């Protein structure tokens, strides 16, 4: 236990120092997560790259074991597949996350790297060969072992990424998963897995000092994907060494919240015709905050409680027999069902509108794709405007305006493009979206509806933000930015 405690303290201190240094450097160098989208919960720019502290904190005590001549150090060095997989795979995933935080990585690149790492781990012995079944005999995967292992790795990596939407949430969720794995490894006398989990727990807590609401730094993809990777890899080793009839169900339950949130997001976006990898504000943490009318911090604490319940269920499954495991799963299933009803995921009154929303969103996605492609090919501001004009008809707006201007010395110079359509006579609803390139306001996209609506729907809002980003990316080459308050503001008024 002393070794585990030392590893925990070393990782905690390293994570504290690294996170503090990264936070200060991120502020100085402008590596900030801007509050320039309605998808963001925070209202001011926050430093990112806090995941560097988690990665450094986790590896620090493990690297020290290569230099220590002890029984634990010898055992650590002897586990070449486990250590090599975690070090090499973890470094690659952390590098991918760092690149995404600094430059932005597309979905194709991220999935390509994640699948490659998962395949490499499979070759090194990280494999899921059987699926537990508490209601009958276990299921041998055979040839399906490879795809199931790869999907597990990639799925958990992205599940932790998706759940990272509130201050302290992803770190806290990961900590409960780490605690579950530590207790399971300790019960079996697995020194190496205990050591790994102690190091990761210290790294997470060191980071959470700065990340719990109100956060002064975010972990970014560097941290969220790295945490998902380590938890997914360790879960495979935990399940393969388990002698219970529910081996793989234990890590699934331990990571129940992010896995459930990811599955809901995939089903929701598929049914509503949204891109699978698009961002929205319909995640579990968003709904808990809005439907239960809770503060940011209270929402995180409620979800911590839910993670604690998943953790206790996972531990119960590990020590229970088949009958008790079935009862635990049924009980947890009932809790999940009640939660889904409470959060509105099972609202049958909206089922009739799903097909209509899906068709509308598919049409909207096609229009946005065509518009953004044309915008990126534009060679002048006039071409940018010509590319945007189909939006007016697609969204049935009465007036559409694109304004580029520069304010200096009380004088305003700029260009304004405008089109009007006969689309209703009701009280107008005006929506303005800033066209913004990093910290510079380039102009604004203005749309006015006269069809009686009091607000635009969420899908239209997200689509307009995508279009505005494409306009900003292209228009920044053609003119001088205007001076304005930082931060995108979407103003809705009648």
Automatic annotation (TrEMBL):
Pfam (any one): Glycos_transf_4
GO terms, molecular function: transferase activity
Record's protein name: Undecaprenyl/decaprenyl-phosphate alpha-N-acetylglucosaminyl 1-phosphate transferase
Taxonomic classification: Bacteria, Pseudomonadati, Myxococcota, Myxococcia, Myxococcales
Superkingdom of origin organism: Bacteria
Compartments it resides in: Cell membrane
Topology in membrane: Multi-pass membrane protein
Transmembrane segments: 46-68, 80-99, 111-132, 139-163, 183-210, 217-236, 248-267, 298-317, 323-340
Alphabetical keyword list: Cell membrane, Membrane, Transferase, Transmembrane, Transmembrane helix
């Amino acid at each position: 236990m002393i070794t585990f405690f030392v590893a925990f303290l070393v990782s905690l201190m390293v994570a504290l120092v690294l996170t503090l240094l990264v936070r200060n450097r991120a502020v100085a160098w402008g590596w900030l997560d801007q509050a320039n989208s309605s998808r963001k919960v925070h209202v001011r720019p926050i430093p990112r790259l806090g995941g560097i502290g988690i990665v450094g904190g986790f590896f620090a005590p493990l690297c020290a074991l290569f230099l220590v001549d002890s029984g634990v150090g010898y055992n650590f060095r002897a586990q070449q597949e486990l250590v090599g997989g975690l070090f090499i795979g973890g470094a690659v995933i952390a590098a991918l996350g760092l690149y995404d935080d600094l430059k932005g990585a597309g979905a194709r690149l991220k999935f390509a790297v994640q699948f490659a790492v998962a395949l490499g781990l499979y070759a090194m012995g990280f494999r899921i060969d059987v699926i537990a079944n508490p209601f009958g005999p276990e299921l041998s995967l055979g040839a399906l072992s490879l795809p199931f292992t790869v999907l597990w790795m990639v799925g958990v990596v992205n599940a932790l990424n998706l759940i990272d939407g509130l201050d302290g949430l992803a770190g806290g969720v990961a900590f409960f998963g780490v605690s579950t794995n530590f207790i399971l490894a300790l019960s079996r006398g697995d020194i190496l897995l205990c050591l790994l989990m102690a190091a990761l727990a210290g790294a997470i807590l060191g980071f959470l000092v700065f990340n719990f609401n109100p956060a002064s730094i975010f972990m970014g993809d560097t941290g969220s994907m790295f945490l998902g990777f380590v938890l997914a890899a360790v879960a495979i080793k935990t399940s393969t060494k388990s002698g219970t009839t529910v081996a793989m169900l234990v890590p699934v339950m331990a990571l129940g919240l992010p896995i459930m949130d990811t599955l809901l997001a995939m089903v929701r976006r598929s049914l509503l015709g949204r891109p699978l990898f698009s961002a929205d504000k319909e995640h579990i943490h968003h709904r808990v905050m809005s439907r239960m009318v809770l503060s940011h911090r209270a929402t995180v604490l409620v979800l911590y409680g839910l993670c604690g319940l998943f953790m206790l269920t996972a531990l119960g499954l590990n020590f229970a027999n088949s009958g008790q495991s079935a009862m635990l799963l049924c009980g947890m299933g009932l809790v999940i069902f009640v939660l889904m009803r409470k959060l509105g995921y099972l609202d049958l009154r909206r089922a009739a509108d799903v097909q209509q929303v899906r068709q509308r969103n598919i049409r909207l996605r096609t229009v946005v794709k065509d518009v953004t492609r044309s915008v990126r090919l534009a060679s002048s501001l006039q071409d940018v405007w010509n590319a945007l004009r189909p939006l007016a008809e697609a969204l049935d707006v009465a007036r559409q305006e694109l304004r580029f201007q520069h304010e200096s010395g009380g004088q305003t110079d700029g260009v304004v493009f405008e089109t009007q359509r006969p689309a209703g006579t009701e009280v107008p609803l005006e929506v303005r979206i800033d066209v913004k390139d990093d910290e510079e306001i380039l102009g604004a996209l203005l749309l006015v509806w006269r069809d009686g609506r009091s607000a635009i729907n969420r899908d239209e809002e997200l689509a307009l933000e995508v279009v505005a980003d494409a306009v900003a990316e292209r228009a920044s080459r053609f003119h001088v930015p205007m001076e304005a308050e930082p931060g995108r503001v979407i103003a809705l008024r009648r």
